[in-house]
Amino acid sequence: MLNWIGIAAINMAIAVALGAFGAHGLKNMVSAQQLEWWQTATLYLFVHALGLLLVGVLIRFKSATQTTAWLLQIGIVIFAGSLYAMTLGAPRWFGSITPIGGILMITGWLWLAVSTFRLGQVKT
């Protein structure tokens, strides 16, 4: 079993580093639109890394499945990765894969909902 808490922490460290690089290193090197792509990628990376941290804890308590974590992680890589790549010069058509990452992240959150209901371990 993968350590999703550790993977989430690595994602968060990467988000902070890439956010700082975007704010300081790219500011005068890319267009305003490219900088916006970078900021969007960093925001989604950070938010979903925090979510992945929660999912990692839930997995440890057997209240979620690894499928949720995989969907979120692959979604993060595709969504944020494609935006980072375009900012750094990848062709614009590369952005056509960005929504695939978004769909995987949405599916991950929905899978969390479905799996927690199925596991019957959601306590209110």
From TrEMBL:
Q: Which UniProt keywords apply?
A: Membrane, Transmembrane, Transmembrane helix
Give yes or no: UniProt keyword Transmembrane helix: yes
GO cellular component term of the entry, any: plasma membrane
Q: Where, per UniProt, does this protein localize?
A: Membrane
Q: How does it sit in the membrane?
A: Multi-pass membrane protein
Tell me which InterPro entries the record gives: DUF423
Q: Tell me where the transmembrane regions lie.
A: 42-61, 68-87, 93-114
- Please give the Pfam families that the UniProt record associates with this protein: DUF423
Its main localization is: membrane
> Keyword Ribonucleoprotein on this protein?
no
Task: Give the family from UniProt.
Answer: Belongs to the UPF0382 family.
This one is known as DUF423 domain-containing protein
Source species, please?
Psychrobacter aquaticus CMS 56
